[in-house]
Amino acid sequence: MKDGGRLTAAIEIIDDIFSRRRPAADALKDWGLGHRFAGSGDRAAIGNLVFDVLRRRLSLAWRMGDESARSLVLGAYGTMWRRDIADLDAVLSDDRHAPEPLSDGERAALSGDVPEGAPDHMRADVPEWLWPEFVAAFGERAVEEGRALAGRAPLDLRVNTLKADREKVAKALARFDAAETPLSPVGLRIAAPEGPKRLPHVQSEDAFRKGWFEVQDEASQLAALLAGGLGGGQSVDYCAGAGGKTLALAAQSRNAGQIYAHDADQRRFGDIRERLKRAGVRNVQLRGPDGDTLADLEGRADTVLVDAPCTGTGTWRRRPDAKWRVAPGALELRIAEQEQVLAEAARLVKPGGHLVYATCSLLAAENEGRIAAFLDANPGFRLTAPADAWLAATGAAMPDGIGVTLKDRGEVARLTPATTETDGFFVALMQRAE
Ligand SMILES: C[S@@+](CC[C@H](N)C(=O)[O-])C[C@H]1O[C@@H](n2cnc3c(N)ncnc32)[C@H](O)[C@@H]1O
Predict the structure, then answer these.
(1) Which of 30, 62, 128, 434 has a CA positioned 20 to 30 A from the CA of residue 237?
(2) Annotated binding site
(3) Where is the active site (predicted)?
(4) 159 phi, psi to nearest 5 deg
(5) How far is CA 188 from CA 185, 223, 325, in A?
(6) What is the pTM of this model?
């Protein structure tokens, strides 16, 4: 396919996503089934265009003065893929599958500056109803944070130090230009591709099958490192899901001590057993309501990590359609779940032990708000300084901009695409009084 046909496809798919409120993955899959002649390069290019439109839906609509699928796709292609008007004219004229040629209005919108006066949430590409949450979290920097969340994400890998080191994995993945991550001492990064290019499927590499690395964003690696660095013989990953953090905690522990991976919904464990085996992990027990519970650990755990269910706003770079699908009811539901997991998990912490609350969200209600409410209700817990844990876990000083002070309570850590070039992550480290 030429780019003209790819633009037409992206317009069709965006129309489908918006008019039928469909998840992007479903709409892309259906299009693929109906157009089997499209090659893998075409699918990658069309998928990238669709996701880029979803990343910048509001700011593109403002620039184009129109929110139709056609305007958004042409806007993404012209500005995010950096194609000038001459390129666009050529693409639209030399292919019978291409969309209609540019109108005068489109030509003006694509060649001129962005019109002044856009509301902040549109400049930031954040849904209007969520904007107050962004302002509460970031104040004057809210637009900058939203814009960074509307970019593409790199592919981050966590080296499994039970089986390999960074050098070994970097060498195995040399053809992808995997470079060391700046903050996580066990991370490697493959840069976000531009335009139609796609990220490599690293899971089909031998090094992956041998358990040398896992795919994990650098912020998520750091959240696990902070929790794992607090020490102690018995740790609980209370919301373990498929075990992303469990695996990281186990590697950090060097298979010493006991780690309990727990989830209220044990179907979420997915292929956790296979992952643990591949990684050479020997100190993890699975717990949950369908089998052994954590009742025996009440008041006995050294560290409990709560990687709480959340709206996932910090991962919008990777899942941009989630931005437009999250609804007010879902936020309320997540807050209720967060309150419940924190209350349940806190009971496990021994006197002097640690409770770590993490989310991959950047909304104040899920982060600062939850910690303030928890500390109010649980005076036996206090925040501990993330900078100390950072130094202990990574061997380096915590960079400026990560520590955030919660008034009268202490500091938490927050990673964001704008400050650390990672997914958005919030981590509060708490300790229970002796
Ligand atoms: C953010 S995900 C965990 C991701 C996982 N830690 C990882 O790194 O791959 C949150 C998990 O919390 C679980 N969850 C929700 N409510 C819970 C509860 N009350 N107790 C324990 N787990 C809960 C969900 O089933 C979900 O698997």
Answers:
(1) 434
(2) 263, 290, 307
(3) 360 (nucleophile)
(4) -75, 130
(5) 9, 16, 31
(6) 0.96
